[in-house]
């Protein structure tokens, strides 16, 4: 996955925006003010921090040793750092981004979830 493709996919979700609260080098993707992805798009290798169900996080780390690790500078129970430079299938990376977005949306107030109109 390229940095451009990662950015485009993150911004394809309803109400998703890119923000730079940690400086100009770190893209933070949010939905209604809540972060669902964080990446240094110019980093080598390209990685992205994603929210994850705690049980799934541990399972994914075991299945993809070294490519999916506990979230760098994040709550390690709920966040993974995913290598997105082609070492993992792009389909898996996009599914993990979508799961992260869905987890964040599920934590929003009901009125906000309904406003997003996400199937």
From TrEMBL:
It holds the Pfam family YjbR. It comes from the Bacteria. The keyword Lipid biosynthesis does not apply. Signal peptide: none annotated. PANTHER family: CYTOPLASMIC PROTEIN, CYTOPLASMIC PROTEIN-RELATED. This is DNA-binding protein. The lineage of its organism: Bacteria, Bacillati, Actinomycetota, Actinomycetes, Kitasatosporales. GO terms for molecular function: DNA binding. Keywords: DNA-binding. Gene3D superfamilies: 3.90.1150.30.
């Amino acid at each position: 996955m390229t940095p451009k493709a990662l950015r485009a996919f993150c911004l394809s979700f309803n109400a998703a925006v890119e923000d730079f609260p940690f400086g100009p080098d770190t893209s933070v993707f949010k939905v209604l003010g809540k972060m669902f992805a964080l990446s240094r798009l110019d980093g080598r290798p390209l990685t992205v921090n994603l929210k994850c169900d705690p049980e799934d996080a541990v399972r994914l780390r075991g299945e993809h040793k070294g490519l999916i690790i506990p979230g760098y500078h994040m709550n390690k129970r709920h966040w993974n750092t995913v290598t997105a430079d082609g070492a993992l299938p792009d389909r898996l990376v996009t599914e993990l981004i979508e799961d992260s977005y869905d987890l964040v949306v599920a934590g929003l107030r009901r009125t906000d979830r309904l406003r997003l109109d996400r199937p």
